Amino acid sequence: MEDTEYDYSHKLTLLGEAGVGKTNLILRFVDNKFEPSSKPTIGVDTKYKIITYEGRKVRIQLWDTAGQERFRATSAQSIRGVSGVVLVYDISKRETFDRIEKYVSLIADNAARDVRVLLIGNKMDLLENRNVTAEEGRKFADAHGYFFVETSALTNEGNCVEKAFDMLLKETVKDVIEREEKMEREALERERGSSILIKPPKKAAEKKCC
Predict the structure, then answer these.
(1) CA-CA distances (angstroms) from residue 19 to 38, 119, 176?
(2) Which one, 89, 115, 121, 174, has least CB within 10 Å?
(3) Among 27-31, 122-126, 160-164, 175-179, which is the least confidently predicted range?
């Protein structure tokens, strides 16, 4: 049952080609499990997780998008208003990395200019079939100002999946809290300003002729 008590709500969207492991990355992060027979996502699916940040409870809403081209419009809608985006490719399939660039354009066209992005090279359990080097992934991420990490949703060695999400959430949750606190301060200042009565200036005394 979902915990309905939280201080802030936070949205992340995962993008990438079909089969790169987006669904299992979310399952590993939220429920610490892996489903080898998971079916391709149709449209958009969502899962939730409550985390604690500086004593505040934050509900993380994770949007799992379909990688098929016919769902591209749905993927575009899913990144509007997000706090962060996770781009995923499969290190054993070069084409999934080569197609990351189109998602960069999707983010640029639909997300806020300052949105935080994490690039994940998934399926480190397939190292013997690696077709994308870690250096290539890091270079791409650096060129776009993204965070970068490699993971395995299957083995989760070294708790790598949670560490990957934490890398992004540490910054995006801070952004959300700072933005909401700023809005609260501005609203309070406006309220205080409107409560101050401004007295009209006194009229100069009229001179009476004798």
Answers:
(1) 10, 16, 31
(2) 174
(3) 175-179
